Structures are given as structure tokens and as C-alpha cells.
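C-alpha cells for chain A. Residues wanted.
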């Protein structure tokens, strides 16, 4: 009788902290002037169903340790999935060996000791879901079934999926800082198709949350994916023109993501940004504001400290349309002669303030005549020059009301101009990611069609 190997037991945070401390001690014993380490432990379940049948079922259980050592300004890094004492020692030895062969970099090293996080707030980021495979499959099937039964024109499916993940990540360095916190993320989604022949359309909907109890119901997600798919049937093409463009929140989040890429420290010191040296300049319209709020309870982008142990703090990134600073780690800050902003690993909860009351329907009315974009395709975005050109689909609006769906078009412009000419931001904020923004109305873009 075959013996099925058992997964190793889940370690506690104190266990991971002990592993880090052993690694840092080993690095010191080998002569490193500084060292930092991160240990992570991730578990998860993902299921996918299509047309009522299970297509995928995956259990995840990963462990990893990464250590970086510094010999003066020489740096070496190594990692291992084996957290035993011998493996940790061997990994530290490998990192030390690598460091001795690397070139000196005056900007390398740990973040300054005085910037390390002290008391760490409880941000309520962990809500484990004891959902088994059978129950997960049942939920995914109910989601797809709700979509398929919504209307006879919904005649095919790309499936529904449910994922639930739990992580524990601990970071420590030779400043004496050791900290970590558990997180969870849960997502339920559905994609269906409608129509026949050349008029086949697809669309989707999903819900994502730290707390599984706050997910939208399986039935509501299925119905919304079906409703969105049906609305796209019978699309028309547009003639090439200049017109106002309205982006739904999930696409507006991507637009703000391009802005974030442009103001990262790495983009600035490499001189690969369409907003090069733009700090202190107006890059959005007057009155526009974006705040970073890293301590929002249950939020996807929340963190008490960044990837270097630096305490995260509230900041106003855009004030009255003016860029106040960049997104900096200690390394990129040193390259620019600045101070880290606690953003090693990225930004933490960017909140784009609405400029008017009302969500998508209010902005459609304000749009008057123009294009509502609900899907973008392709990767035609150059964050060095700001050139922007992507395939799109959505709806043509006249008289403040949707007239018909459109497809096979391209929207084009320059990101610098697009950001500077935002006409309005709605209050229909999408909170499913690290950038929270409502629908965004752009004054004008080129729409290329027939």
C-alpha cells in the first residue's frame, strides 16, 4: 500500500523569526557587515470548473527563505526552499561567496536603522477560510450555473474559479529589526460567452477580499458576468475621431498604475519615465489629489512596514494636482540623493479622491457624447515616452445615455496629456486592489476605427 507523504506542519511566526535570527547570526559569523532575510510561508486552494465539470484543483504549500548580505558595499543574495538549519547555513554561505565577487555599489545596504518600524498596528489582514475542496467546487459551480441560467443567449462558459490563500511573511535585518504579519486573500470569478457565429462575446466579473465573508455571493457574481456579456452583443465599429473617453473603475486603476510606474525611484534614476524629475510640478488638474494610506484595515495594499522594515506612513502623493514626491526604497532614494519613503516593494493603498458626487451613471451623463471603455487589450504602453495605444471595447454614448456596444477599436494618446486632462473622477470606487479609484473621464483621446 502506497504511503502518501504528509505536508509539513504550518510554522508559527515565532518559528520563522527564529530561522531569520539563525541566518543573520551565520552571516555575522562569516564577516558580513550587514544582512537581511525574509522567510515566507504560503498555503492555498484553487479550483476551476467549466460547464459544471471540475477542470482544475490545486493545493499550494510553499516555503522560502531569501537572505542578502553586505560586505561593505558589496552585495550577495541567495535563497532556499529548505528551512532546516543546515540549509540555512549553506544558503548564507552561498550569499557570502557571491558578495565577494560583486562590484561595489555606493548605494547598497540596509535602510537606515532609525527608520525601522516600531510598534506595528494590527491591520486585520488575515481571515483564513477553512473551505475544503468539495465546498469550493460547489461554490464555483453555483457561480457558473447562475450565469448560464441568466438568459438563453448565454450559451458557453470559460468557467468559474475560486481561490483562497493564506500567507505569513517575516522580515529581519542586523539593525535588530524582526517583524511579520499574516495575510489572506480570497477571489471568486466567472467568465461566460453569448451569441453565435461572428457575434460571440465574452465578459466576466469577480469579487476579491481579505475576508472571505465579504465576498459577493456566487450567484450575484455569475449574474453580473452574464449581464455584462449580454450587453456586448451586436457591437458596431466607429469611425476614427477625437472624442472624450470614460474608463470604468477597474480600467482606471490600470491608468493610475502607469502613473505609479513613472514615479518609482527606479524609473527616475534610470531616466526611463514620462514624468522624469516631475516632483513639484502639476501633473494632474488643479484640485486633484491622491493619498497613500498604508494602514487601512483589511485593505489589499496595507502593510505596517515595507520590504526593508521601514515604517509605512500616510502621505499626500498628489496635492492640488502637484506631484509631491516619488515612490522610493532606500536604494533608489540614495541613487537620487533623497530619503526612502517606505515604499520598498511598492505603494500601499493609493486613494484617488473623487472630484464629484455620483458614479458611472453620473459620469455617462456628463460625458454627453463619447466612448465608454469597459475592456482594454494589448500592451501598447510606453512609460518612457508616455505613448499610449491599446485595443478597446465598450459602448458609444450620445445624449448622456448608452446607445450601442462597440468593438475592434483602438484608443490612443500620451499618458502625460491624459493625466493632465482628466475631467472628472466618480465616487464608484473599486476597492479590490491596491489602487482605489472610481470611473475616470478623460477630456479627449484619439479613437481609431474604420
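Reply:
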Amino acid at each position: 500500500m502506497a504511503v502518501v507523504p504528509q505536508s509539513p506542519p504550518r510554522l508559527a511566526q515565532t518559528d520563522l523569526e527564529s530561522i531569520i535570527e539563525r541566518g543573520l547570526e551565520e552571516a555575522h559569523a562569516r564577516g558580513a557587515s550587514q544582512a537581511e532575510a525574509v522567510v515566507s510561508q504560503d498555503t492555498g486552494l484553487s479550483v476551476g470548473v467549466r460547464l459544471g465539470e471540475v477542470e482544475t484543483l490545486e493545493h499550494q504549500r510553499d516555503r522560502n527563505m531569501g537572505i542578502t548580505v553586505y560586505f561593505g558595499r558589496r552585495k550577495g543574495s541567495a535563497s532556499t526552499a529548505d528551512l532546516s538549519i543546515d540549509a540555512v547555513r549553506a544558503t548564507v554561505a552561498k550569499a557570502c561567496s557571491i558578495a565577494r565577487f560583486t562590484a561595489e555599489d555606493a548605494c547598497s545596504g540596509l535602510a537606515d536603522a532609525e527608520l525601522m518600524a516600531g510598534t506595528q498596528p494590527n491591520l486585520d489582514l488575515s481571515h483564513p477560510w477553512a473551505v475544503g475542496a468539495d465546498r469550493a467546487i460547489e461554490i464555483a459551480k453555483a457561480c457558473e450555473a447562475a450565469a448560464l441560467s441568466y438568459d438563453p443567449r448565454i450559451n458557453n462558459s470559460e468557467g468559474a474559479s475560486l481561490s483562497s490563500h493564506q500567507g505569513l511573511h517575516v522580515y529581519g535585518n542586523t539593525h535588530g529589526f524582526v517583524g511579520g504579519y499574516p495575510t489572506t486573500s480570497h477571489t471568486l470569478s466567472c467568465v461566460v460567452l453569448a451569441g453565435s457565429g461572428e457575434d460571440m462575446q465574452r465578459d466576466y466579473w469577480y469579487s476579491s477580499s481579505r475576508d472571505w465573508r465579504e465576498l459577493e455571493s456566487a450567484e450575484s457574481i455569475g449574474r453580473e458576468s452574464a449581464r455584462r456579456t449580454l450587453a456586448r452583443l451586436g457591437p458596431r465599429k466607429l469611425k476614427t475621431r477625437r472624442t472624450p473617453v470614460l474608463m470604468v473603475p477597474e480600467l482606471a486603476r490600470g491608468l493610475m498604475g502607469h502613473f505609479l510606474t513613472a514615479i518609482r525611484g527606479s524609473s527616475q534614476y534610470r531616466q526611463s519615465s514620462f514624468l522624469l524629475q516631475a516632483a513639484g510640478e502639476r501633473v494632474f488638474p488643479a484640485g486633484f489629489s491622491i493619498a497613500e494610506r498604508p494602514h487601512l484595515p483589511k485593505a489589499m495594499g496595507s502593510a505596517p512596514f515595507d520590504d526593508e522594515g521601514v515604517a509605512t506612513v500616510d502621505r499626500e502623493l498628489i496635492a492640488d494636482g502637484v506631484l509631491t514626491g516619488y515612490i522610493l526604497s532606500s536604494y533608489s532614494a540614495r541613487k537620487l540623493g533623497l530619503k526612502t519613503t517606505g515604499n520598498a516593494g511598492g505603494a500601499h493603498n493609493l486613494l484617488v479622491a473623487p472630484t464629484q458626487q455620483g458614479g458611472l451613471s453620473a459620469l455617462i451623463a456628463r460625458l454627453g457624447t463619447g466612448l465608454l471603455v469597459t475592456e482594454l487589450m494589448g500592451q501598447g504602453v510606453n512609460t518612457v515616452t508616455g505613448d499610449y495605444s491599446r485595443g478597446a471595447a465598450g459602448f458609444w454614448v450620445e445624449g448622456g445615455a448608452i446607445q450601442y456596444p462597440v468593438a475592434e477599436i483602438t484608443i490612443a494618446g500620451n499618458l502625460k496629456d491624459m493625466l493632465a486632462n482628466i475631467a472628472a473622477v466618480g465616487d464608484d470606487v473599486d476597492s479590490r486592489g491596491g489602487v482605489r479609484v472610481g470611473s475616470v473621464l478623460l477630456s479627449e483621446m484619439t479613437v481609431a476605427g474604420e
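The first strand starts at residue 34 and ends at 50. The chain is about 25% helix and 35% strand.
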